[in-house]
Structures are given as C-alpha cells and as structure tokens.
Amino acid sequence: MSTTTTWQSGSGTAIDDATLDRIDKWWRAANYLSVGQIYLLDNPLLREPLTRDHVKPRLLGHWGTTPGLNFLYAHLNRAIAERSQSTIYVTGPGHGGPGLVASAYLDGTYSETYSDITEDEEGLRRLFKQFSFPGGIPSHVAPETPGSIHEGGELGYALSHAYGAAFDNPDLLVAAVVGDGEAETGPLATSWHSNKFVNPAQDGVVLPILHLNGYKIANPTVLDRISDDELRALMVGYGHKPFFFEGGYDQDEPIAEVHRRFAAMLDEVLDEIAAIKARAAQGDVSRPQWPMIVFRTPKGWTGPDYIDGKKTTGSWRAHQVPLANARDTAEHLEVLEQWLASYRVAELFDATGALDPDIRALAPTGDLRMSANPVANGGILLRDLRLPDFRDFAVDVPTPGGSISEAPRVLGEYLTEVIRRNPDNFRIFGPDETASNRLQAVYGVTDKQWNADFESPEVDEHLARAGRVMEMLSEHQCQGWLEGYLLTGRHGLFTSYEAFIHIVDSMFNQHAKWLKVTNDIPWRRPIASLNYLLSSHVWRQDHNGFSHQDPGFIDHVVNKKAEVVRVYLPPDANTLLSTYDHCLRSRQYVNVVVSGKQPAPNFLTMDQAVAHCTRGLGIWEWAGSEAPDEEPDVVLAAAGDVPTLEVLAAVDILRRELPQLKVRVVNVVDLMRLQDAREHPHGLTDAEFDTIFTADRPIVFAYHGYPWLIHRLTYRRNGHANLHVRGYKEEGTTTTPFDMVMLNDLDRFHLVIDVIDHVHWLRASQAGLRQRMVDARLEARQYTREHGEDLPSVRDWVWPDAQDLSSSEQVDATVFTGGDNE
C-alpha cells in the first residue's frame, strides 16, 4: 500500500484576468451546448434565424441543475491543470446530463470516444440531435457519458459512490456534487458519515459540494430554507469544515468577480486538502475535518428570468424544460432564440464550428481530463485477483452427510487468504454482520476500517484506521461503497441478512441496468462482478422470527437481463467454496449466493462439488433409488441447503418404506440452469431438461424461496404440468428450524405425502404411509410446543451412510456455538 502523495498546493497567487475570462467562456460554451442538446434539432451555431423546424418535436431533459454543474466543472478544470491532480466528477443531480456531455465534448474526450461526433458544425448538430432522441443517448449522466460512474437515475447515492471510488485510491480527488433535493433522501443523509471510514494515507479524498439551487420539481428544498448558521452546524456535526459560496443572485456583481471569488475559495479548499495529505504521508492518519463546499446558485442560472410572466430562473419552473412549447408558439421560440444568443456563440466557436483553442486550453490534457480519467472506466485498471486454490480449504466428507460445517465459516478461511494476497484492491462490505455471518476468520489478517474515535481495546475489537472490512449499519452505504469500488476497477463482496438485502433493491436495479448497457458500449471495459453473500436466510431465523423471513431478493434479481444476473444456492461448504471462487473471477455480473450460516451436513467431496458446480445441477445417484437403465417413478429436486436436507430425509423415508419406488434426486446449485437456454446463457435445452427431470414423471421440487419463481423459470418445459413446488409461502414466526419448514409444507414428511399424492399408483396403496406422515407432522409440532426444541429423531437425523460415524467424526471442528441470530 502506497502512502506517497502527489498532492500539490497552489501557487498562492491570485487568478489572472485572462484565466477568469477563459473560465467564463468555457462556462458559457458548456451552457450553450447544454441548452442546444435539450432543444435543437438543427442550426447548431445559429447561422440563421431560429425556426420551429430547428427545434425537437419532443423536448426532454433537465436544465435547472445544469449551469451550476457546468460552473463547477470549468473551475475544476483550471485547478486540475495547475495541480496535475487526478480527479473524477460524480454528480448526484444526474439530471444534469447535458452539462457533462457538453464538458466532455469541450475537452475533446467525446469526439475521441465517438468519432461521428466531430468537432465542427456537423458534429455539433449530431451532438444536439442525439440527446434524449430515439436511437441517441439518455438524458442522465448515463454509461454512455465519458467520465461517468454514477448515472443518477435514482437520487441518494452520490457520496456513497464517491467514497467507494476513493477507497484505496490515495492520489484521487472525487469532486462529488450533492443536489439539494438529493440531500433529502435517507441514503444521502447517512452517507455524510462516510468520512469516518477514510484513511487519509491509503485512500483518496472526497470533496462534497452541496449544490443549493433551492428547488426540486415543484417544491423548495429543506437545506436551502434553513439559515447558514444551522446548515454550518449540520455540516460541522457531520465532521466537515464547510466553505460557503453564493453566486448569481446579485445582478450588479460582474460575472468575473463571481468566478474570481469561487476560484480563490477552491484554491483554499484544495490547499487544505493537500496539507491533510502531506500530514498523512508523514504518518498522521487521524481523522481530519475534511473540507466541503456549500455552493448556492439560482436554479436554471443564465436562463430566462421570466416566461409567460412567471418567475423561471431561480424557481422550480427551471427544473426541467422551461420552454416546453418552444416549437409551437412564436413567443416561446423567440425566447429560446434570445436565450441561446445570450451565450454569444460566435465568441466561442470558429467559422467551422470548432471550439476556440484558447477555451480548450482551460482543460487539463490526456488522462487528467475528468471525462477521460481511466478511474472512471474501471475495467481499464482492473487487475485479476490473486486467488488461492479454493480446494486447499475443502472440508472432509468421508461419506454424504459425514461431516458438519458452517459453510460461510469455511468460506471465511478462504477469504482470509484472498485478503492476504490482495491487500489493496479487495474489500468486504457489510452492515455490522461480518462476524454474524461467520466470516470472522478474516480478522486474522485484517481489521475493520474505522476513523472515528477509539475506546478501550477490550471492547473495540478489530477496529483500525486501515482495514479490508467495511462495516456500517446501512445497507445503502455498503452497496454504494462497493459499487463505487467496483466501478473504479477493484473487487469485493457484500454480505447481508437475506431479508434486509431488499433495502438496496433499487440500487441493485441501477447497477444491473448499468452493466446491461455497458455490455453494449465497446469502450467501457468489463468490471468485477457485484457479489452478494446472504448467509442469514429465511429458514434459520430462530430468534428473529417473521420479520427476518423473506427470500424474495432472488425473485427481484431474476427480473433483470439474463446476461447480467446469476443466482447460486450451494447446498454445503465445498459447493460454497467452488461457487465463490467462480464469482470472484467473474466479470460484469451480479452474483447472488445464498448459504446458511448454521451447522449443516456436508454432502459432496471437493471433487464432487467442483463437478456439481460446473454442471450447475445434477443427479445425486448416491441418494436416489433408480436403477441405471430405468426411468424414475418420481423426481425429488432441491435448491438450497435446507431444502436439500429435507429432500434427502424424505428420500430416506421412501427408500425404507417404499423400496420398490424408483426415486431420482436432483440438486440445483445454479438456479438459472432451470431457465430455457433461449432465455438465459446458463439455461438447459429442452432435451437436457427432459433428460434430467423427465418429460412425464412427477417432480416434487423443494425450493429455498417463493415457489412460484420455479414455475416461472420452467413454465415452457414439457413436464411443467407435473411440477409441484414447495417453498416459502409467507408463513413464519420465532420457532424451531423444523417447525419453520413444517409451517411452509417444506418438511420431509410433507414431501413424502407429495410423492404419494402425485405418483398415481401410490395413492390408494399407500394410504397408511400417508397417514403416518400426517401423524409424524403432528408429533413433531406437539414436541416443539412442549419442549421448545425439535424432536430428536428429526433434529439428529443424518443420511444413512453417515450413521455409523461417531459424532466426533461428523462434526467439523469449526462449528460455532454462540452469537447473533442462532
């Protein structure tokens, strides 16, 4: 880990008039290009009087936040060029898309990236036409925008992404603009605390810029309508040193003076940051009071003051498209023409439509351009993880069910070595649950990064100013940090309770959409996959109960494009190791892995686990009772660790009670294998599906989540009418593990009943066995009510081949005997 820094202080001299003029011209050019993108279809340089045919038939986009973003971009350009400071620009107000496209065009990156958007009049026409136009680009700071890692389609995550980008990037400045509407969201309000997790030596710097333009779509913003003293107290309370700036409200102040004041403030802020970094390089990694800027400007700055006699600039009316009828009314067309002309385009572009070279000179060159910084195209910088051989961490499985492990605890041993080998580009993120989810082995090589105050080492276990584990009790922050970390070229995983991963549903949506779009953008290089580990799952919430019982995140994930999402349900420790090694090697996916953290049997040796995970599903011949050359009478399938246990226990009963019944046992670890090959890259062909599940025999499927998802994935299959799925059906409480599966009819006795009910020749002949299964359920239920634990014959059941092993041989030495969520 490097602690050197290239952070430079400024020259200490005032900004000269020529530079101020260059900044203003850049700002005017960016504003002109932004307005042009929203409105113009043709006549990009106003060579002729504006007509309705020059205006787009559908006016889309957002103007209100854009001029402020353009102002900041222009000033950052100056500072970056003078200081050679690697910087990326994260804009929480994603609606400012036209401004970021404009600046990328002005510094040359856009034309380098898209060769048809040339630096001439025709290029400007294409630039304008494509914006929010069919076949063109979106209105947000989308993946198509060079320099973007944050689309902003949903508000609230600017700072989370910014800090994720800064972790392990010691020489990076992230200028993170927070919209004042965005500042009202819960995730953004929480993300101010991210500064307590920054190590000033090993990490980069986030410069938050709170952009107060006063209004949302139709209402004022909270932070703009409180006093400066109150706002200052809020930001100081968050741990920042706020710098306040106001511009654009005093009509008598020359614009050059507005630029001069901001340039001086920005230099002061950056000098203070450079001083903090210099102290850190000398060993002072205590938490500083990081600077931030409160930037107050009118909404829609430089736009028309009034439209149709109503206040526009400086009001909510400037939020989106102030002149919605510019094409259809002569009055609005005239206002638009005057608005565009106010930027004096002839002073900005030459006769061919090329930008004045003196204006271009404001921007830094090469990779120092914010729109060209390789950090914002993280796949360029991505290095493969140096991974150990996961087979070295295998648990011994002398016979199916012959050992017991907590699967995530075994994974934790593997992750310990991953961290050891990758000390600067791999982190684990989670909301206070790393140990609860049994990954605490990693604390043998790392600590939890923490830069707030410290108390006694007796209670502050594994806290340090530098560490590979990031814990904050906010799923939003963990998700946002990890996304920012991945988007800038690193690797990681997010561990969480299954029920509460839903908190980030919409964040997952945005990231999955980003991956889907970037798959079709050649210059966007693939990034490491977003990996989830959900270890406290629906079936083992023994004291948390109903509130913690929800497996629906899988359903939500499966809604996304097939080329992006993967869902894995490893049934034991060795399959979890094989699965997660694959996930850490993958690119451009969202991998959801669900694995219970409670002690559970291991069924597959490592070689068997690797083969099983490679197939994604398979027939467990050792568990079934079918002869090699015969078709089964029934298929019992399972996906998930608890369903697998219940299926095997049901098969044990069937083998003893109905030896003539030919049972096939199928286990599914890769859920997407069930889908049609035409719908998902991992899907089985119909012929493959029929070979495994049969086309005409009953299938009793025990599934980890909501049962209708299995029907949805298999509805086209020949044997779908024969498919009977058991899973979670929203029945739960604080109860024993077996009572929990009985509440949802997923238990072994009910699975035997399902076999009798669906194998037609058993219905009448096995009425007695069916009745005994009903009675067994009643007995198990009654035992829990009397004793508060599961019936020993159920609780202590093991696969028959493992019954001869002593308990010491069965139980892995790593079994955990205490802690949260038992």
Automatic annotation (TrEMBL):
List each copy of the Xylulose 5-phosphate/Fructose 6-phosphate phosphoketolase N-terminal domain by range.
Answer: 15-380
Xref: NCBIfam families: PRK05261.1-1 (NF003616), PRK05261.1-2 (NF003617), PRK05261.1-4 (NF003619), PRK05261.1-6 (NF003621)
Q: Which residues form the Xylulose 5-phosphate/Fructose 6-phosphate phosphoketolase C-terminal domain?
A: 597-799
**A GO BP term, please?**
carbohydrate metabolic process
Q: Which UniProt keywords apply?
A: Lyase, Thiamine pyrophosphate
The cofactor named in the record is: thiamine diphosphate
Q: Does the keyword Metal-binding apply?
A: no
Keyword DNA-binding applies: no
The entry assigns this protein to a family as follows: Belongs to the XFP family.
User: Can you name this protein?
Assistant: Probable phosphoketolase
List membrane-spanning regions.
none
CDD domains under this entry?
TPP_PK (cd02011)
The EC number(s) attached to this protein equal 4.1.2.-
Which domain of life does the protein's organism represent? Bacteria
Q: What is an example of a GO molecular function annotated in this UniProt entry?
A: magnesium ion binding
Recall the taxonomic lineage recorded for the source organism: Bacteria, Bacillati, Actinomycetota, Actinomycetes, Micrococcales
What PANTHER family does the record tag this protein with? PHOSPHOKETOLASE-RELATED
